[in-house]
Design a protein that fits this description.
This protein is an all-beta fold. 3% of the residues lie in helices and 34% in strands. The strands form two sheets. The protein has a six-stranded antiparallel β-barrel. Strand 4 and strand 5 form a beta hairpin. It is globular and about 45 Å long. The N and C termini lie far apart (35 Å).
């Protein structure tokens, strides 16, 4: 089966190379921007009222052939699906960010781990009642 994904925007980030990005965006105070394409602007209605947003992105510079990875602090390889490595067959990034502000097509966020120019696939409001496992 083949699927077609259409980015809704892209990331403006200080991270230019994979080695620049943090291992987990939530552990960083770095501010980035998400620029939404004009055709998707109506989809941003009411998003500004949210404190946190789930960002799904396409790690376009990832190694898609990787099936094992060694997590930070570990000396053991694990199957890529048991890690949060950006290198994976379908390099979909998932990051919960703080939504600082919205201005037209630009979302200013804190805690995003994406490289500059990374395509954004989707945005979803974070809900502690649904998204936090207890």
């Amino acid at each position: 089966m083949q699927m077609t994904l259409c980015p809704i925007g892209y990331v403006r980030s200080p991270y230019k190379l994979p080695k620049d990005a943090p291992r987990q965006g939530r552990l960083s105070d770095t501010v980035s921007e998400i620029v939404i394409d004009e055709q998707y602007l109506p989809g941003l209605r009411d998003l500004a009222a949210k404190k946190h947003v789930i960002v799904l992105s396409w790690f376009d510079r990832a190694d898609r052939s990787a099936l094992v990875a060694t997590p930070p602090g570990s000396s053991t390889d694990h199957g890529v699906f048991a890690t949060r490595s950006p290198n994976r067959p379908n390099p979909i990034g998932l990051c919960v960010v703080d939504l600082i502000k919205t201005e037209g097509p630009v979302l200013t966020v804190r805690g995003l781990d994406s490289l500059d120019g990374t395509p954004v696939l989707d945005l979803k409001p974070y809900s502690p009642e649904i998204d936090c496992v207890r």
